[in-house]
Amino acid sequence: MKLRLALLLAAALPTGVVAQTVAPVPPAPSAVKPIAFTERTLSNGLRVYALRDTGTPNVSVQVWYDVGSKDDPAGRSGFAHMFEHLMFKATRNLVPEQMDRLTEDVGGYNNASTNDDYTNYYELVPANHLQRLLFAEADRMASLIVEPVTFASERDVVKEELRQSTMARPYGKLFSTYLSAASYTTHPYARSTIGSIDELQAASIDDVRAFHATYYRPDNAILVVSGNFDPAQLNAWIDRYFAPIKRPAGPIPRVTVTEPARTKAVTYTTYEPNTPLPAVVMTWHVPPDNAADIPALTVLQTVLATGESSRLYENVVYRDQLAQSAEAFLDTKKGTGNLIAYAIMAGGKTVDQGEAALKREIARFRDAPVSAAELTEAKNQILTGAIKGRETAEGKARVIASSVIIDGDPRDADRQLAAIATVTAADVQRVARQYLGDNQAAIIRYLPGQPPANVRLMPITVAPTVKVAALTPPANIQVVTAATGPARIMPPAPTAPIAAVLPQPVETKLANGMRLITVERHGLPIVTAALVAIGGGATDPAMQSGVANLTAGLMTKGTATRSATEIARAVEALGGSIGSSADRDGSSVSLTVKSDQLAKAMPILADVAIRPAFAPEEIERARAQTIDGIEVTLKDPAQLAALVATRAVFGKGPYAPPLDGTPTSLKAITRDDITRSYAGTWSPDRAALVMVGDVTPAAARALAESQFGTWKATPLPPAVMLAAPPAPRVIVVDMPDAGQAGVVVARPGIMRGDDRYYPLNVGNTVLGGGFSSRLNQEIRIKRGLAYGAGSSVTARRLGGSVSARTQTKNPTAAEAVQLIAAEMARMGATPVPADELDTRKAVLVGGFGRAIETTDGVADIIGDYVVQDVPLTEIGRYTAKVQGVDPAAVQKAAQALLDPKAASVVVVGDAKQFIAPLKALYPNVEVIPAAALDLNTASLRRP
Fold it and tell me: d(Cα 610, Cα 619) in Å, to the nearest integer?
C-alpha cells in the first residue's frame, strides 16, 4: 500500500510561548475497519476481488495489469504508458472511444495510469451498467486492435502530453525525468514513465502487438469490482466474459534486477529555462513496499512533511522562510523505492541553504527520537487519511488493487495500518539511521537560466549501467481485426437503474443570524465542517488585488490566543486538517476531522474565524510566500493564458484581476487593508456553517451555539458593481522559452441566478466537458494536437465567463484557436442532436452524483449555494433541471453566450513559431512580451 497523505486535521493547544508549551499527547488512534471483500481465481489465472456496498448507486470496475514502465523494452522508454493510451481504441467488438460512450455518456467516467510497476484501468458507472463494463474490459484484454492510423495519432497525443507535463511546466523535467535518472544506477526504474520523444517515434506496430501479447493476459491481471451489485450475478457475468479468455503458454518476463545500495552521495547540478525559483531535491533508497520497515518510514515521512506542523513546513518554510514550499513523499515500489525530500526556494534564497536545511531536518531523525506528541499526531493523520481514502467504492477498490499488485496480498493495506499503530520512536530513529545517511543521498540542484561558461556539469541521464532487456515477441501473435455484421457482439443493455440517495440538508439559524446547515452521514467516522462567508476577491479595491485571498489565508496563521504553529499542531495532532481560502464571491474556513474529535476541533475553527490576529510578521511571511508562488504561475504558459484571458474578458471589473494578486499589488497591501477586508466579509449574518458527516443536527446545533453564538454582526460593506465588458481582444504573450503554447478563447457569461444557467452548462458540456466533448474530439482525438482540450462556465453573483482552452506545441497554436472558434460557432448554428445532448447531460448528472459521495464534496456544493444565493432545495432538483434542458434551449443559449465573435483570444508561447498564421486569422493581434505584461491594468501592458 502506498500511503499518500494529502490530508491534514483538528484540536486545541494551550496558549503561550511555543518553546515553553507542553502539548498534551492525544489519545492513540483507533483502528480502521478492514475492507470486506471476496476473492477467487479463474482457471485462466485472472484474480477477482469483489467489494459489495449497497449504500452507493454506483460501481467501480478496475483492471490492473502487472506491467509498468520498468518493463519498457530496451530502446522503448515510455512504451507502457503509450500502450495505456492505445487500450482506449478499438477492439474486435468495440469501436475507438467506445469505452467513453459506455462510461462518460451514461454519467460515469474512465481513466488509466501507468506506474513503474503497473498499468491500471478504472471506471465508475451507475451500477446498472456493470455488465456492459465487464464485457468491454474483457474485450480489450482479449482482442485489442492495433493499426497504423490509431497508433500514429496516439503517439502524437503522448508527445503533447510529454511537452505539457515535462517541457512546458516549471520543474517538469526535474520531477518527470531527472529524479528517476538520478535515483538509480542499475534498475530500470531509472527511466521516466513518459519516456522520450525519440524512443516513442522509433516504436513500431509490431512492437506494440508484441507488448500486448506478452503482458496483457489474464494471468497477469487482477479484476476488482466495488459497489452496488448482486454477488451471484457478478460471478455469472465474470464467468461469461472473462473465463473464456485463453491463458498463453509462454512465461511472463519479469524484471529481476536489484538496485545496489548507494554508499556514496552523488550530486547533480542543472540549469533549465522556465525555472522561476531554484530548487533542490534529495532522495534516499528505501526497501520494497512490503518490507517490515515501511510502517516506520511512513511515520517518519508524516512527521517530516505532512501538514503545517510538520518539520519541513514549520522550520524550513515557516520559521526560517528559506523555501516557498518544502515537501517529502515516500515513493515505495515492488523493488527499491525512495524517500524524496525537496525544497523550492523562496525568492533570494539559494540551493546551498535549501540543501543544508533538508540535511539538517533528516539528521534530526537520526540524532534523536521523535517526541511522543509527534508520533501520535502522525498516526492520527495516517488513520484519517486511510478513512478518507475509503469513503467511496472506487477508493476501496484502489486500496485492494494496489495491495495485490505491489505487495502480493489484498490485506496488506490493513496489515500496514496495524503495523503503523505499533511503531515506536525508536523504530523511526532506527530506520533513519539505516536508510537516510548523508552518504546515501542523491542530490539534484535545479537552477534557472544558463550555466556559467566556465562550469562543466555532469548531465542527468539514465546511466549506461541500467539494465534493460529487449522484448522477445511471443510466437504466433494474433493480429485482431474488427468484427463486422452478425459477427460483431454488441455490449449488453443496461439493467434497471438504482436510485441515488440525495443529501438532505437540515437548516436552522442562530440568534446572531448565522445559518447552520447539517447533512447526516454515519457510514464513516468523519466530519467536514466549513464556515462560508459572502465576500471574496470581487471586493478587492483597485490596485489591491489579492487582499481577500491574503486575508483568508492569514486566518489560520494566528488568533488572539493561538499562534500559527499552535493552530497547526493542535489540529493535526487529532489527525485533522484545517484550511482557509477566498474565491471571487466568498471565503471559507474548513476542517475535516474524525467525528470523535469534532468537539475538540470546533473551538479552533471558531477561533480562527472570529479572532484572527493578522500579526505583522505573519503578513510579511504570507506576502513573500504568495509572491513566490505567483512567480511560478507566471512561468506556466497555460496558467498565464488563463490569467490574461480573465483580465481581457472583465477589463476593469471586480472579477478581472488575479485572485491571488500580483507581486506589485501584494507589496502595496497594508495591515489596515487586511482588517478592512476581513470586516467586510466575516460577519455571522453573512455566513453559514456547513457540517457534513457523522454528526446529528442536534449535536451540530449545540456545537454551533457554544462556539459561534456570541459572534457579533458587523455593518454591510459597500455593494460591488460589475463593469460593462470591454471589446474582445486577440493577445499574444511572447514567452520565447515556452515548451508549449497555452491557448484560451474566453468571453463574458452570465450570473448564477440567470434562467439560462442550466442550458448554458449543458451546452458547455457538449462543447468541452469531458473526453467525448467536441473540442477534445477535434483537437486531441482526430488530430493529436494536444493532450486534452475543454471548456468551462463560471457563473457568479454578478456575472461570469465562458472559456475554452488547450495546450499544444507552439507551431499548431493558431490551428488550435481556429478549431476552438469553429466549435463555439457551431453550437449556435445548428441544434445539438438529442442523443448527443442526452450523453452530455449524463456527464453533468454523473459528476454531481460522484461529488455528493464524500463529505467534503457535499460541503463544497452547499457552500457554493450559500455564496451564490441558491436555495438548498437545488441539491434535490439539480438532476431534473439538467435533464429538462432541450436542444432548442441549448442552441438559444449558445447563440447568445458561445458566439466566438464576442470572445477574446489569448495565446502564451513562443510567438515566432505561430504569429504568422495567427495574424492571418486575426490581423488586429496584439503581441506583448512576457517581460512587459502587467496583469494589474486592463491594458495588460507596463507603462
Answer: 18
